[in-house]
Amino acid sequence: MIKMIAIDLDGTLLNSNKEISVRNKEALKKAKAAGVKIVICTGRPLTAIEKYLEELNLLDEGDYSITFNGGLVQKTNSGEIIEKALMPLEDVHDLHQLAVDLNVPLDVLSDGLVRQLPTSEEYFSLYGELNNLLTFKSFELSQLKKEHIFNKAVIAIDADYLDEQITKIPAGFYERFEIIKTRNNLLEFMPKGITKAYGISLLGKDLGITQEEMMTIGDEENDLPMIQYAAYGVAMANAVPMVKEAAAIITDDNDHDGVAKAIEKFVLEPLGGGN
């Protein structure tokens, strides 16, 4: 029996217009009413998903979200952090130098604040276009302090140029960080071992829910660990090939209620509440 559903946002729960369909909302509403934990699992901070949580009625006591690709597990009604994994200042310094060497922009996220660091005079960050609900401020590297919170670092730039520069990242960085493309024009750096699977494993442990009782739904490279982790790993029809190959289930795409169709078949029908 599925007791937790962890769902990615972009390309999964959200359609191409960044909206949640009526059918997806209804399926999630029925699953929650049946006692299933509905957990948004995203690379975004909590402040950038609050409107979706409100739309889905996921702001009650006992509702949780996993943010920063597994870096934080939070109560949605208060923002209280249940589990966390942060990036030390030394890592930010090293990523800053990497960005300078690659001639790419670098943004460092500190909860809802995005610290934009001067690393390239030719290329500017696209992250504000991708996440316009966040607060963006320019910082010099010398202004960053050990006591600041650093959740992750991102490079947001033209997809073709990004792909060229990715090939130049030294192997040592892959040994120290989780380096994942979450969109074709967005590369993210997380502390090593911090993935969406890590986040849902911690929340599952806190709630007494096992891998066998979890469904995860996603489409992108950063969803791969949680797709592999859960017994019911679901890939969207629009998912990248590696996610489809790893999934136990493939559902319809994000513009045709893929999330709802998976939940109706594997969660609601066994409970006697499917369409």
Automatic annotation (TrEMBL):
Record GO cellular component, one term: cytosol
Single GO MF descriptor: phosphatase activity
Source taxon at top rank: Bacteria
InterPro entries assigned to the protein according to its UniProt record, in alphabetical order: Cof (IPR000150), HAD-like_sf (IPR036412), HAD-SF_hydro_IIB (IPR006379), HAD_sf (IPR023214)
Name of this protein: Haloacid dehalogenase
Species annotation: Enterococcus rivorum
